[in-house]
Structures are given as C-alpha cells and as structure tokens.
Write a structure and sequence with these properties.
By secondary structure, the protein is of the alpha+beta class. Helix content is 21%, strand content 28%. The chain starts with 19 loop residues before the first helix and ends in a 7-residue tail after the last helix.
Length: 261
C-alpha cells in the first residue's frame, strides 16, 4: 500500500487534485481496495444504521460551512486553522484547537472535492476532578453509535472500540479478517486513512487512556469517516484516467506506424 505524505497543522497534501496525473502517482486499485498515497464526552443520540453519524454535532456529509459551525457550537473555545493541500493551497479541511501546550479539546475535519465532510476526529483531555470512568466512556459510546463490532475494555492502560458499517449501513458482526473496513484505522491524531476498501461504508473508532493509579479516563479520541465516499470519488477519477489511456493507445495503434529499417 502506498503511503500518504501527511503534513500536520496547516498543510495537507490530499491527492484529489484537479490534475489527475498527480493523483495517480500515489493511487492504485488492487484486490477491490482503493489505496491512495495520501465540555462533553460526546453528544448523545440514537445510533443510526446510515451514513449520517456525527461527533459533537459535526456530521458526515455536511458542508464545510455547516461542519465548522457545528464545531464552534460544540466548543466556542476552539481556534481554527485551515488544512491546505501542498500542491495548490486548496483548503481540504480545518483544524480546531483549544489554547495551551496540551489542549483539552481539539478537532480535525476533512472535506472531499464537493466540500462535503467525510472525516471527523475529536480528541479530549480531562483534568482530575472531571474525568469520566472507563465504564462511563464505553456506555456513552454505545449509546451514541450502538454496539461496536470490536472492543477491548480489559486492558490495564487503555481501551478501544470500532464500528464497521458496510455500504448499506449495516453493522458488521464477524471475524476481523472479513470486516469491511479493515485497514482504515486513523493513523495518529486525526490523520485520515490511506486505504479505502470497496465494501466499507462508514468506520468509527474510539480510544481512551487511563494510565493513572485511579484508572479514570484522562484522554479520549473518537474518529468517524465515510470511506465509501472517498472510494467512489477516487475510483471515478481512476476510471477516467484509464479510459483516456486506452483511447490514446487505440489512437496510436490506428496510425499503423511502420518503422524505417
């Protein structure tokens, strides 16, 4: 799998450029996978069997303006900066962070070429006296997203859970090896995935840390992304490029060039 050269803070080299050649330097489709080189704990709502998930009101599929407005409503202390593509400076997302060396709250939101939100990540830190319990975190996550596909709540220092939804919005229950969104985990703090499986609809991931003697949660990170949106976008671009290459080859063959010997 080709890996994206992701940049932090204000510069993001997301490969969906206006020139398809720059995309295909770092993208391929193999084995039905698109591979690209590329306050509150959580607001509670009823779990959905659809692609309309949200974190703190920042909803997948919402416009760039709607997403940033929702983030501001979620936490008015956030200061926003644009995430730009390296080649041309196009804004591909926003990052919102509270002040401080170790922000209590931060969010990253990425948009597709139609300025629709496809990726949201939120990270929260809790000070002593306001920390949720491990059990409270897991209950809140299940109330928000439903029963997870996979979870680990027995580790001594951290916990995690993930939700795999196929393209029809159905939650997956089964072995990890056949999970529709395997390989789409967010790498690091708010870094989008580099692989988009064909059958993945929406993927949700949560991790929480409690590396303290009281075993109270001092940090929580939640990520949601609509993998199917990116798969379809990238496949359309690749199909168009492949078609152009075939037409160019056919045109070359039609010339019936004879070498001079």
């Amino acid at each position: 799998c080709a890996q994206a050269d992701w940049l932090s803070a204000s510069r993001l080299p997301w490969p969906l450029a206006s020139q398809t050649s720059s995309i295909f330097q770092n993208m391929s489709i193999k084995n039905n996978f698109v591979m690209v080189g590329i306050g509150s704990l959580i607001l509670l709502s009823q779990a959905h069997a659809s692609q309309s998930f949200d974190i703190g009101g920042i909803r997948l599929g919402s416009s760039a303006v709607e997403a940033q407005s929702a983030a501001s409503a979620m936490n008015s202390k956030l200061t926003f900066s644009e995430l730009k593509r390296r080649e041309d400076g196009k804004v591909m997302g926003v990052s919102g962070t509270e002040a401080g060396a170790f922000p209590k709250d931060s969010v990253k939101i990425f948009f597709d070429e139609q300025n629709a939100t496809w990726f949201v990540h939120r990270s929260q830190r809790y000070a002593e006296g306001s920390r949720p319990s491990r059990e409270g975190v897991f209950v809140a996550l299940k109330e928000k997203f439903g029963e997870p596909t996979f979870s680990n709540t027995t580790d001594l220092l951290s916990g995690n859970a993930s939700w795999h939804f196929d393209r029809s919005g159905k939650i997956y229950k089964g072995p990890l090896g056949k999970a529709p969104c395997s390989g789409t985990d967010s790498m690091g703090r708010g870094t989008p995935p580099s692989t988009f499986p064909e059958h993945c609809g929406t993927f949700i991931q949560a991790t929480w840390n409690f590396a303290n003697k009281e075993k109270m949660v001092d940090e929580l990170g939640v990520t949601i992304h609509e993998s199917s949106r990116m798969y379809d976008t990238l496949k359309r671009v690749q199909d168009k490029s492949n078609s152009a290459k075939r037409e160019a080859l056919e045109a070359e063959r039609s010339k019936s060039v004879k070498p001079k010997i």
